[in-house]
Predict the structure.
Amino acid sequence: MSVRTREVEYFDGGTRLVGFLAWNDAVKGPRPGVLVSHMWGGREAFVCDKARALAQMGYVGFALDMYGDARVGSGPEENAQLMQPFLDDRSLLQRRMILALEIIRQQAEVDPGQVAAIGFCFGGLCVLDLARTGEDFSGVVSFHGLLKPPGNTEGKRIVAKVLVLHGHDDPMVPVDDVVALEEELTRAGADWQIHVYGNTMHAFTNPKANDPGFGTVYNPTADRRSWVAMRDFFQELFNPS
């Protein structure tokens, strides 16, 4: 098995975006594609590694670029500056996600009828917003994502299946936000699941997260369990019995 990669340039108006595509060249023909939406720091090695891991599983992984030119923040202050415009303008966020969905469907290695999206932290919010737009694709997985609704999708039907993987002790996502999301997804007619991991804080899949005061702490058990949950979810999405 050989995982191959290439960068994919695409544009949102005058903004040049650079995604990272990974696929297994031992798999013949089009196969399911999975968008990977990055954390607040940008399209860094973490999401490119996730794209490679998805390729090893037989999918095509596409680490998308929200910020442009694959820009990566230098630390929390710059990361927040890069992310904030998308929190302030969720229609911009949604447009970038829909564009990434269109781009992955155009790749020769991808079956355009079988596409899902995963995201981490800020990226978890991004994939939920993609589902909230009502776009017709297979499903989304949010890893320790932010959950606040965008305010411009109420009344839309959610077609994509939804899996949310959440740490109960995440200070950035209180229990009330989880309950509100359950109610929102139910109103939208979504097929949804929420898995909550006890004694688990924000950023639990990131081995570099080690700041209890900020609320970001790696949890290897929750990391492993959440990846297994994603794997089983994709088995259901892409290989229904």
